[in-house]
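Consider today's protein:

***
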Amino acid sequence: MARRWLSRQLYARAAAVGVAALALFPAGSINASASNKPPSSAQCLSRVNDTPSKLVECVRTDDLWNHMKQFEAIAKANPSPADGHPSRNSGEPGYKASVDYVAAVMNAAGYDVTIQTYTFTYYAFTGIPNWSEASPVAQTFALTTDWNPGQSIGSATNATLQPAGGIIIPSPGGSTSGCSSSDFAGFVPGRIALIQRGTCFFGVKVLNAQAAGASGVVIFNEGNTAARSGVLSGSLEDANGNPIIPTIPVAFTSFAIGQTLYNAYNGGTKPVMSLSIPAITKENAPDYNVIAESKGGDPNHVLVIDAHLDAIYGEGMLDNASGSATILDIAQEMKNVNPTNKLRFIWFGGEELGELGSHYYVSHLSSTDLSHIGYDLDADVTATPNYVVGVLDPAGPDLFTRTPSEQFPNRVYKASTIAENEANAYFESIGLNHEPFSPVGTDAEQFNLAGIPASGVLTGQDCCKTQDDVNLFGGTTGNFEGIGISPSGCVDNPFLWCDNLSNNDPNVLTFMSKGFAVMVANMAFDTKVMSASNNAVYSKKLPITSEVGRHYFVS
């Protein structure tokens, strides 16, 4: 890594800006004091919230929750045409209705709003996938516990399982099973191919199996490490990394199950099984980014504030109506502000499908327009009940694997800590620990890859909250959402449909949104980082100057 990061425990407890943390947020500056009545929503919307303290006291639970209620109502009013459940998934009516709602709110607040359209390949389950074995053991494999369906379509009924070549048990790692057409020499058409994970893209293995006449594919984990032994879920891509949707069903399973099936076949009792994945697909389906710009601010120095608006598998209230509500409320509260830097609020589509909206947006900017973006702030999941206080750091560990993130251009690392430290200082001022997490898997990743500094906030989803997390934030280990579904939660499971309003904590939403507001308020008036000039970070003529205890320097 270009910048060393501290251990999670030390980092979370360290004063991210040293002794300046208290100076940056003097007592009573962030939240209204007990002797002062907090401003009402109407008062907040009518005044100029141009300092962190003004903005933070105007980020209110009721306003945030009202947006959340609107998003849930949209999902309920727009069931998926595929499975009939409430939905805000990209490519479905509920997502477009969410786009229209955000655009209407931002238009009413006086922002310049545009809707950017792009296309993608839509895929959705129309029913619950099934994988069962008739012999030698009669059993039905449990969805998500024993296996996960690949993004594929089709069914195979009472078909014999046949292993492909290249399977290694036990595997030292690097199995080439299914990576070459020669691995299917002697394969009997109509059978289900058993293939081991390793070496090449999953889609390459499936395409080779399909060319050999396979009626379905079962891909099992490699088994060389604990991380490569459990039930896996993989994306299907061809040799060039392009997504594919095979017309034969694909199942992903654990090493243990794969080994059992492999041994049964080699022992002379060939498994007979059925595999069905009911789904629909549509090429060139429309998807949308909502872009809303402040009328004021220097267009040569743009601050992007983003969240993804799309859901995955249903209402998507935690992931990511919560982050969408966070930036929508902040945008409303800043509607009367004349910032130093142009504010560009963006609600991205297709994040759950591989950061499609943010990738499209960044990759379609001209070199000049890209150079004008000085910073990105991302709100991705901000209301988790069994939460962590995560602050995005390009050198931080991944939320799920807790391993270091990918490499980004060197120029993003040091500058990204500026907004990160501002959030950390706020959380410390209200007695909360915090942890750094990688932007990988969030829309901030696309900005970092383009060389733009970025930070943001997240509170976790699905598995796996660790004991270290519990030591810092309380709660329980396991599921971030604190529900009795272990280890998975509501968000990334396509067959639970429980990421609804009750999957969110309004108190967590509020303090995370306030922390994010501090980042936005400071970066809106920053000149040092945004312009890479030698000017002071904040103009001495601005109200925000009185709340800044020190200047931050990037170099």
DSSP finds 16 helices and 18 strands in the chain. The mean pLDDT is 89.
